[in-house]
Amino acid sequence: MMTENHGRPPLRVDARLPDVLTAVVAGDHAPRGSGPLMDVEDPATESAIGRFEETTADGVAQAVESAHAAWRGWSRLDPVERGRHLMRVAEALRADADQLARLESLDSGKPLSQARTDIAGSARYFEYYAGLADKIHGETIPQPRGTFVYTLREPYGVVAHITPWNAPLTQMMRGVAPCLAAGNTVVVKPSELTPLTSVLAARLMTEAGLPPGVCNVVLGAGHTTGDALTRHPLVRHITFTGSVEVGRRVGAVAADRIVDVNLELGGKSPAIVCADADLGTAAKAGALAVIRNSGQSCFATTRLLVDRRVHAEFVERLAGHVAGLSVGHGLDDPDLGPLISARQRSRVLAHIGRATRDGAELVAGGGAVEGVERGHFVAPTLLSGVTNDMAVAREEIFGPVQSVIAFDSLDEAVGIANDTEYGLSAGVFTAHAGTAHRIAAELQAGQVQVNRYSGAGVEVPFGGYKNSGLGREKGTEAITHYTQLKSVIVATS
After folding, report:
1. Does residue 442 carry a catalytic annotation?
2. Predicted confidence (pLDDT) per residue in 170-186, tens digit
3. Using H for helix, E for strand and C for coil, what is the string for 290-323?
4. Which domains does the chain have, with CATH numbers?
5. How many CB atoms lie within 10 A of CB 372?
6. Residue 421: how many CB atoms within 10 A of its CB?
7. What sequence ranges are listed for the domain Aldehyde dehydrogenase (predicted)?
8. Could you read off the pLDDT of 336-352 as tens digits, one per residue?
């Protein structure tokens, strides 16, 4: 159902931001130049809520050079002091959490409660890596008498972060915080669809005392601003989150330039529901997968593999959850907001249509939200009778569409789960601990969840197998990907 507008205030972007946003370089907005202007849309109303000037190649160069100049001092700063800087950023994000959440909800469409969770997570990244900043160390390696060997973990320099539109601030801070803790500086390019919180956060970081140039933000599309950023010779590491198609292009640039790269790409995550599972818990988890960012999440479980013995009961339970979900403007805090754009909405609707033509049964949803004329809304949708050869089971839809596939044996279920080009996340629901551990070992995914399916804490490494990407974010593991290893060999005789 569609939620009502309960006295929502008029749309208004933060007064601390200029009418036309520009890149944030060395702690301040760059002067207006000759770049084209682009609107920022509220996807729930299709109204423009902001405007920015695309950063030109020259502007990108200035941002990178600023970050490189700042790196010299930042990398030599006592790690304890770097940690204190990061802790102050965490405090600044928490102090402005309400406004950041509101902006995140406006430009991404996500419900306000989800946006608040994202802002809290963004602050937590800085808090966590503030505590790690002075604990990045190498090791000693035993050698024959007369030789002493030790290793050092050192920063790369300037790291480029290209972030997606589905979780703009948390995706930014997930990479920026460990980069800064390790002594790197960063230039961030948020999606052109959702730049608001990235720009405001960069200003808040400077106000919190982060040295100018340590975190710069450039604005624009991937094929222009993003390409200029990844190809700049002073960028020594690239981190990209987005589609497999664009990830391949970014990876090709990194290979050509011989720089390291983190790629977090797509997913088609399965969850195996065994006959002995708590079906209520599993059904709720299946509905939550289409709630988070309206299904626009790379790790969302969108293939529910269900034992045929409990298939009918499970579908009935899941249908009840999906049909009861509310849809509306993010600031009204419904269960689901809109999709990010008209293009994405059309793509999702096309996938649903193809699935039914391929033989899937439409159990709930399946199209536009009744009574809604504006906004990129799609009703939460449940498909049963799906087989793993259907496009809806193989392609990343990025929308509120859940599919149920029946299986007859656990070996068959594992085979279906692994029969995909992706390997970002997976899950299993069962009452038997031995079954859970056996299936977890056999699933080809970077993260496996048991009897739950939601995001894990900042302490838990995250990344994919196969076409889901390269490298790991989060936890202490992220530090290894944002540092390079040096071995020192000393003659002691």
Report:
1. no
2. 999 999 999 999 999 99
3. HHHHHHCCCCCEEEEEEEHHHHHHHHHHHHHHHH
4. 20-264+469-486 (3.40.605.10), 269-455 (3.40.309.10)
5. 15
6. 14
7. 38-488
8. 999 999 999 999 999 99
